[in-house]
Each structure stands twice: as structure tokens, then as C-alpha cells.
Amino acid sequence: MSFYGLLNLPWWGYVLYGFVMTHITMIAISLYLHRAGAHRALDLHPAVSHFFRFWLWFTTGMKTKEWVAVHRKHHAKCETADDPHSPVQEGILTVLFEGAELYRYAKKDQDTLERYGKGTPDDWMERNVYSAKFMRGKQGVVLLLLMNLLLLGVPGLIVWAVQMAWTPFFAAGIVNGVGHYFGYRNFECPDAARNIIPIGFLVCGEELHNNHHTFGNSAKLSVKPWEFDIGWGYIRILQACKLAQPKRLPTELCQAATPNENIDLKAIEAIVNNKIAVFSNYTKQVITPALKTAALRFKTKRLLKRNPALLNQAQKAQLDAEIKHSEELKTVCTYRDRLNQIWSNTVSSNHELLEAFQEWCHQAEKSGIAHLQHFAKSIKSYRIKRVGH
Questions:
Q1: Centroid of chain to Cα 357
Q2: Which positions of the chain have pLDDT values less than 50?
Q3: pTM of structure
Q4: Per-residue pLDDT tens for 299-344?
């Protein structure tokens, strides 16, 4: 075997080889671990699932149950002290450069694995190969190193080192760190998730993080016409080959053709499944008009337009102190808080939700505030519209 291995590639060949290999790894993380495994938004053919499971073992040593459990806990405990990797809690530099260490620490918690890792593979291959205790399950990455040395020679060692650093930096650092710190927000979801562009080819569409935290169970991450989710492109190719089937897509609100006099279960379904969009509409249609007549600082007006769940105690106290002189603002903020209280009662039945929203609409229509009255009437006709393929 020569110094440059069996392939004896030019310099750009090593770059292309490394990019293709790491890109397949990112596809496996995004489609198999994330969209299909953690969120069950996608059904993959067993052959495709097993290929991705093998590839992740081969190129990263990651185990399905561990990754899925840690990610589900991230969504369940987002931006709290129990979040496995929140830059709000840990700091952006810690998550960006030590995200892999935070993941390794989180996966050691057996309670996390048992509570959040349900429904992941537990077959003979998983127990005896992919999760084997021999070499701590790192047989795959050792085989990858040997293959790189055979095909690429000594430069294969450098390529392997890049492969080992690529996934922790981009998947753990960029998505979990930058994706909760810098970027733009399409939706005021109750956490700090943001969309970061234009690195879609590097993280397989996972840069659309704010969209994902808004529609967590959607197989498609893009919602705006100008956003590009390359992972969705791969899903469509697999779907055309009958190797994948999306189960859920993003939804948006629309109005029924005929306005409703009373809120019904279809409107409740639309409101509950698009509560962040409802919150956004409330801000635009009720909060913003009320701000036009209020003498408030620009910073205070910005805080009023944010999701209350994102405000700390000092910010909430500041808002309470500054809006107490405006009865209209106090009223519309109170009604917004009551909406959030209805949503937060996750154990309510459809009938209980219907009664709660009916009472909310009835009282809002008696408030004497025109914009609030109009909003209460409009949500009675809300319907779900699936975002097109």
C-alpha cells in the first residue's frame, strides 16, 4: 500500500471524500435519529432505517436510544436547568465548543434513557453490535479509521480526525448552540430557538431550528417560500422510491369560508395545534394597536410583543410597572395571559377546552376594546391548513 492508499486521490478528492461521508452522517442524524426517531414525524423503510443505524455506528459510534432520549428531554425541558444543552443556561461558547461533552454527560443518566428513550430499536443487532460493551461500542469508528488508512493512506488519518470533529461541532455545537442564540425567528415559540442560514448543506436543514421548535412533529422544517430544507428534499426522493412516508407536516391557520357565530371543535383543533401562530396574530391584531396610544419606551414595546414565557422576572416586573397606567394594555395583556393558561392545561378534554375558549371569547367580546372583540370573533372561524409539499 502506498503513502496515499489504494485510491491515490488528488487533494480535492480527499475534500470531496470527507464531505460526502460527513454529509451522509448528517442525513442519517436528521432523517433517522431526529425526524423519524425522536419525533416520529417520518416512517422509513426498515432497510433505510437499518442502513442509517449502521452508518451512525460506523461513523460516530452514536446509539439510537441515547440520542433520541437526550433530544426528547431537550424539547421537554427546553431552556431550563434540566435542558441537556441550552446556551441560555450553559452559555453559547460552552454549547458551541463542548456540546459533545454535554451530550455524553446527559446520556449517562439512566432515568433520562428510560423515560425519553421509549420506542427505539432493541433487537439483537442493537444489543450485541451497536450497543455492545466491547470497546465501549466504538468498534465502528475504529473500522472507519482502518478503511480510511487503506483507501486514502496516511492522509486518511487527517480525514478521519475531521470526520470525528465534524458531527460534534455542527450537530451538537451549531444547531444546539447557535440555533438557540443567533438568527431570525418566524415564530415566538416559548424558547430561544432561532433559524440560522445559509448552512443547510452542512446540517441537512436542521438550521431551521425555530421552525422545528414551532412544529416539532413535522417531517418538513421549512415553512417560508425562500427557506430550503435539503433534508426534506431527500425525504421526497425516498418517498418517490417508496422508502419513506412523512406522517406530519407544518400547519397554518386559515379562516372558514363562512364565519362562525360560535367556536366549534374544528376551531379548537386549529387553535391548539397552531397556538404560536395564534399568539402571533394576537400580538399583531390586539397588542400592537393598543401600543399606538400608549406612551411607552421602545424597549418596553418590544418586550410586550415577545412570548411571556421568554421573559425573566425582572422584565415581567418592568412591564407590570409601565403598563399599569394604561387600562387598555392591562386588559389585552390579561386576556393574552388567560389564553396561555388555557393552553397550558394539557390534561383538558376537548369539551373542557371548548367551554374554556367559549367563555374567553364571550368575555372578550364584552370587553369594549374593538381590536380584542374583532380577534375573539375571528378565532371562531379558524381552521387548519396543511402546508403544501
A1: 28
A2: 389
A3: 0.83
A4: 777 777 777 777 778 878 877 777 777 788 888 888 988 888 887 7
> Taking a C-beta distance cutoff of 8 angstroms, is the pair 245, 43 a contact?
yes
C-alpha to C-alpha distance for 369 and 171, rounded to whole angstroms? 47
**Sequence letter at residue 174:** I
CA–CA dist 273, 251 (Å, integer) = 8
- Cell numbers placing 260: 362562525
Q: Residue 283 has which C-alpha cell?
A: 400580538
Per-domain boundaries in the chain: 11-249, 253-386
How confident is the model at residue 73, as a pLDDT?
95
